[in-house]
Amino acid sequence: MYHVYIIFSEKAKKFYIGQTMDIEKRILQHNTAFFEDCSTIIATDWELFYQIDCSTRKQAILIERHIKKMKSRKYLEDLKKYPEITEKLLSKYKPVNP
């Protein structure tokens, strides 16, 4: 299973959106500057804000792109506040069975 994750840094007052199979490991990597070229290097207090569980990596990538294109803090907050938005995203980017 893959996950789209949204993390937040109180210190930086910023969100970061990504996708992974292991959220705990990925947050640890962000907090320890494992990704040297990543924008998360500016802080070490990243915490999980929200996650979306996806069936496939392709679905996770498509949902991640969709969220990033929104470029809106309000949209991220609404994702957490209104579960129906997540359901619509999962439905819109539903994996196609071969």
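The record above closes out task 2.4. Task 2.5 opens with a second protein, given below.
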Amino acid sequence: MRYGRGVMRRTLAVAFTLSATVAAAQEGSQPLVLHGFGSAGYGKNGTDNNHYDSSDPRGDYRHAIFSLSVAAAPMERLRIRGQVMHVETDEEGEPVAELDFAFGEWRFSDALRLRAGQIQQPFGIYNEIFDVGTLRPFSFLPKGIYDSGILAEGLNGVGVAGSRRIGSGWGLQYDVYLGGLQVEDEPLNETIGGRVVLETPVTGLSFGASGYSGSAEDSRHSVLGAHGEYLAGAWSMRAEYVHAWLHGDVKVDTAYAEVARRLGGNLQAAARYDWSEQSHPDMARTSADEHKDVGLGMNYWFSPNFVTKLSYHHVDGNLFAGPEDGSPALESTTDAVFVTAQLSF
């Protein structure tokens, strides 16, 4: 059973997704900024009937997305942002469009910015750049944290954010938010959460913690996480751990570690281990509650804005790999190959 669905990396992330720093710097000379990013690929696995991400036994090429992000600065302190995504995923290959976020931000100073509307949910490393494939080494994000229903991309409410230097080589970034969000098909009310990131004097090294809690119909949904990131030279290394309490009694533990290195020229090699397990009271754990994904990848970067990716994944467990119709999985292991092209501008 599925329990439901961010220094160089930050500089690139804000450039591609119109984050506060870049847009604010462009307010005077370029009040309207437009960016987009997309992904399309093919996935195939060797099971009889398991599906895993965009792979199935017959081969699946119907998973294409394109997102358009716009930021405007009609006043010196005011910035407005929005993003829509167009995705092709259903059985008939019909396109689906959705709003990721749309909000206004008033900048009092670098240390205090107020946001209101459908804001992005700040959590961990990747949640605010969820669909930007050119900012990660694998075609898809670690499933236990970012594709399991633990998080939402947008939150209807208000938030404050800021950053400041706190010493020689040290920096602090923070986000705090309040409102309601949709996790899978479950609305969460009275949600409060935040994230803090500490930048160290070591170039490219940062650590952070995130968390939030919201009220469901008859229980609370609470999530806590910690992450570390190192990006310098040819290396990129990231790791995260999350513990979640869902529906009042389901507990989830999930973590991943990934490393990637440029090999010279345009090639990049990558490896990732993604692990998840969930527990129910008074129920024995089965393969449907477990997930282990060992992934190996090789990427060819035509430019920082266009990359092709080839990856192999060996998956143990059926938490995320299984029949689409919800029937019991015939096989507890899945071997899948993905070929993807991802772009941004």
